[in-house]
Amino acid sequence: MVLAAPQRQNPVVTWEKLPDDFILPDDPVENIQQPFLAAALTEALATANRIQPEMLVASNFGIVASINQKTVVKAPDWLYIPHVSPVGTGVIRRSYTPNIEGENVAVVMEFLSDTDNGEYSIRPTFPYGKLYFYEQILQVPVYVIFNPYEVSLEVLRLENGRYVVQQPTESGQFWIPELDLFLGIWRGTRLGMNIYWLRWWDEAGNLLLWSSEQAEKERQRAEQEHQRAEQEHQRAEQEHQRAEQERQRADDAIAQLEIERQRQAALLAKLRELGIDAE
């Protein structure tokens, strides 16, 4: 299915760095889950060592374009840019303008609100709808919309200038080639919240773990190693005890033989004293 934007006169898009005194929008998030959903996506990538210094992975971060001489800023709930230009020492990046500060945005995600469904907006006039901005202005290859209320995931891919709804795999996941990962929904607990999360899986189907999960996995591995070492120690102790018992039995047998030899020698001596031929 192709999501078509309305046909209007093509806007004039330019790429200009945001002025330092530009006041960025500071809208509150829609619900308490949104920051945690975004942070969980980033943390899993970081734990798997999949974030490199030249990348930009951020949430609620301003992406800038100048359209018909008006500055437009959209702050996706989560975004990924494969390569950005470095900033100076001590400089904190406060926004990003594609084409002049690095590559284009590769993936954006929006977590659906329960108010105006602005994530699907194709409004082609200022301040421009999100879908229109990502599709027609930024031309982001992948646009992900997650609905935490109905627990649904939609992945749109840019094809011939229009977003096309992608089909999930049999397991309900979507392949995101820009990250070489699958994206899907997973139910579980993190930071005390048992909700539906967005999770990454690698090409082999292995879940990318959060740091807490990785730490627990390492703890379990260490515990298993400790148990194996303890079992090896117990087996070695048992082998030592068996060897000691065998040695003791051998010593007892030798002692018994020596007693028997001495008894026979004493008997022979006695026989000789009595003049009896021992033969």
Tell me the layout of helices and strands:
Elements: E1 2-3, E2 13-14, H1 33-47, E3 56-58, E4 63-67, E5 70-74, E6 78-81, E7 107-111, H2 130-137, E8 142-147, E9 152-159, E10 162-165, E11 174-176, E12 181-190, E13 193-201, H3 211-273
Parallel strand pairs: 7-8
Antiparallel strand pairs: 1-10, 2-4, 3-6, 4-5, 6-7, 8-9, 9-10, 11-12, 12-13
Kindly describe this structure:
Helices cover 31% and strands 24% of the residues. The chain is of the alpha+beta class and 279 residues long. A hairpin with a 4-residue loop joins strand 11 and strand 12. The relative contact order is 0.12.
Helix percentage range: 25-40%
Number of strands: 13
Strands in their spatial order, largest beta sheet: 1-10-9-8-7-6-3
Structural class: alpha+beta
